[in-house]
Amino acid sequence: MSPLVKHFFDHNTSTFTYVVFDEQKRVGVIIDPVLDFDVSSGKVAYQSADKLLAFINKEQLSIEWILETHAHADHLSSAQYLKSKTFAKIAIGIGITRVQETFKRVFDFPESFATDGSQFDHCFSNDEVFMMGNFEVKVLSTPGHTNDSVTYLIGDTAFIGDTLFHPSLGTARCDFPGGDSHMLYQSIQKILSLPEQTRLFLCHDYPENERVPIFQISIAEQRAKNIHINDNFSEKDFITFRQNRDKQLAVPKLLYPAVQVNIAAGNFPESENNQQVYLKLPVKLEQSK
User: Fold this and answer.
1) CA atoms of 1 and 102, how far apart (whole Å)
2) pLDDT tens string 216-255
3) Beta strands 27-31; 62-67: pairing state
């Protein structure tokens, strides 16, 4: 069976968000929603989320879940805003607990910051199953890019997060804390071993030369054409390539703001004594010679 899928592309962060739903029962889920955030001014806005809500209202859908494929490092999640409008539950993979433990140390969060995933309404275990109307949704643990990365299987669709990109762009980086190129290779093999008719939905696209952003790709095309991992690449080849490439990559410009918010299910820190909310930025000072 095939659920209906509506994609939305945020050009500022090159992120795809999906509304996936059962046409018959009019129930659905939101996957990887984007919060509009201007890093220069610190301003937050909700235009991207409101586009989702307009579509949901037009289609008269009941949204039961807001699903994150992982705690993103390139955009902030609008999950809390959407939850306030739809009353849906926010969920992510159980690996978020390890991500929270790691970044609690990075940001020196207070002892009160929970690292048990309790900021989310639910944390999925590998192979956990729930229903979306008539559709069974299966959660596959697909770590490597991050410890908490998961893939959501809904009918003949798979929402694969950052594991794989468009074949001309390759695969996800593994140099974030908790990333592992060996695990990513194994996760990609798990995805590519799905039934051939499975439609793979991407989390990002970075089109060059005025190419239109592509949100859906076939397993066959990934296996034949992905420039980082295809049927001609061994695991050793991939790991060597991925480790060398990751050393050359710049830090995503929204990494620190995004991670602080996203590991807390889209919640910002509490305001301080002046009623202002702040996000931390680690500063690396070089010693003078």
Assistant:
1) 39
2) 999 999 999 999 998 888 999 999 999 999 999 999 999 9
3) parallel
Radius of gyration of the chain (CA): 19
Per-residue pLDDT band for 289 (boundaries 50, 70, 90) equals: low
Q: What pairing do the DSSP bridges indicate for beta strands 122-124 and 199-201? A: unpaired
Q: Which residues pair with 250 in a beta bridge?
A: none
- Residue (of 26, 28, 30) closest to 17 by Cα position: 30
Among 112, 122, 247, 235, which residue's Cα sits nearest to residue 183?
235
With a pLDDT cut of 70, the percent of the chain lying above it is: 99
Query: Which domains does the chain possess?
Result: 4-258 (3.60.15.10)
pLDDT digits (tens, 9 = 90+) for 97-116: 999 999 999 999 999 999 99
Contacts with 151 (C-beta within 8 Å, 6 or more apart), sequence order: 69, 139, 140, 142, 158, 159, 160, 161, 163, 187, 190, 191
User: How far apart, in whole angstroms, are the C-alpha atoms of residue 222 and residue 229?
Assistant: 8
Helix 47-58 and helix 79-86: axis angle, to 10°?
Answer: 30
pTM for the predicted model, two decimal places: 0.95
The Cα-based distances of 149 to 72, 95, 124, 136, 213 in angstroms read 9, 7, 11, 20, 23
Helix (H, G, I), strand (E, B) or coil at 260: helix
